[in-house]
Design goal:
Structural class: alpha+beta
Distance between the termini: 27 Å
Radius of gyration: 21 Å
Helix content: 10-25%
CATH superfamily of the largest domain: D-amino Acid Aminotransferase, subunit A, domain 2
Bound molecules: pyridoxal-5'-phosphate
Number of domains: 2
Length: 356
């Protein structure tokens, strides 16, 4: 097994997109990282090569049974032209946990992270620098074996692609409306909800469409068994501030373990703000709203960092949280985390990793 990273530089670099029109995941850089797996070889041939389409046989297993996992993290530009990653080792640990769940062979986390740094260095000019922009990093693994049998593949490919992305909040952080989903389920204990795997996301499209039809931006997912306990919001973890205490659903086997979630819990603890991980029912949220103790609610994830929830729609009842304004704590968390990510604030937790 060869573990030496080879680098092939692109000969005709692409034009860079205009920084005001980046959007999310529309543009990709000049290079990508690729590594293959064969059951007799392990992972082999790690390489950084020019960004290009991949060719697969129509019978490649990925197309039929969806044996695949992915990650999402960002590289942030600092004002002094350095590049920071935010807790990237957590993403590769989680990628391996997803692999484990999907019966995909594990990767060497440190080696892949160091290869990612080489890739980013090569495409450094693609990192946008205006306020709120960043370089989104998408590692993913697909099963590539040509075979229709229903069992784990013998061959896989790991690819990392990079996409310059615009600010999530071009007009500043603002709350969104959420529809509480009563019909569809995102994930159940024993299923794949704790893994970042393709099927979890397309299974949510119908609920997202019905939220959109009702004029709401996102879906609030309830547990799949009793349809009673809050789990996540869209592709984000969720927090409620009730009477000064911050509550987030406990990891229960169907919730994705967000790195932003983990960081917020650590930060609140450090600040001396009470934060608890426990079951929280939608009825409790409704009650706390009705007795005026629901102070703030927000989603958390790499894309938005903090997404304040201004409105919750549940069985025809409309709850306006904090008069649809961004709460003080939401704002403070947003500024603190983005400040650390971009090197504008000190990093007492040693969360950032410089690409150098
Ligand atoms: C990725 C993801 C999150 C957020 O995780 P981060 O590590 O904070 O980006 C939350 N929920 C789901 C379903 C996700 O896929």
């Amino acid at each position: 097994m060869s573990k030496e990273l080879t680098i092939v530089q692109a000969t005709n670099p692409k034009p860079k997109p205009h920084p005001d029109h980046l959007g999310f995941g529309k543009y990709f850089t000049d290079h990508m990282f690729v590594m293959d797996y064969h059951k007799d070889n392990g992972w082999y041939n790690p390489r950084v090569i020019p960004y290009e389409p991949i060719t697969l046989d129509p019978a490649a297993m990925i197309f039929h049974y969806g044996q695949t996992v992915f990650e999402g993290l960002k590289a942030y530009p600092t004002v002094d032209n350095r590049t920071l990653l935010f807790r990237p080792e957590k993403n590769f640990e989680r990628l391996n946990r997803s692999c484990e769940r999907l019966s995909i062979p594990l990767i060497d986390e440190e080696f892949v992270l160091s290869s990612l740094k080489e890739l980013i260095k090569l495409d450094k000019e693609w990192i946008p620098t205006s306020e709120g922009t960043s370089l989104y990093i998408r590692p993913f693994i697909i099963s590539t074996e040509t075979n229709l049998r229903v069992s784990p593949a013998n061959t896989y490919r790991l690819i990392i692609i990079l996409s310059p992305v615009g600010s999530y909040y071009p007009e500043g952080i603002h709350p969104v409306g959420i529809n509480v989903e009563k019909e569809y389920t995102r994930a159940v204990k024993g299923g794949t909800g704790t893994a970042k795997t393709a099927g979890n996301y397309c299974a949510g499209y119908k609920a997202q469409a019905s939220a959109s039809e009702q004029g709401q931006a996102q879906v609030l997912w309830l547990d799949g068994i009793e349809k009673k306990y809050v789990e996540e919001v869209g592709s984000m973890n969720v927090f409620f501030k009730i009477k000064g205490e911050v509550v987030t659903p406990e990891l229960n086997g169907s919730i994705l373990e967000g790195i932003t979630r983990m960081s917020i819990i650590e930060m609140l603890t450090d600040w001396g703000i009470p934060v608890v991980e426990r079951k929280i029912s939608i009825d409790e949220v409704l009650q706390s709203y009705e007795n005026n103790s629901l102070e703030e609610a927000f989603g958390t994830g790499t894309a938005a960092v903090i997404s304040p929830i201004g409105e919750l729609n549940f069985e025809g009842k409309q709850m306006l949280i904090n008069k649809r304004n961004t709460g003080q704590l939401s704002k403070k968390l947003y500024e603190s985390i983005t400040g650390i990510q971009t090197g504008k604030l000190p990093d007492p937790y040693k969360w950032t990793v410089e690409v150098k």
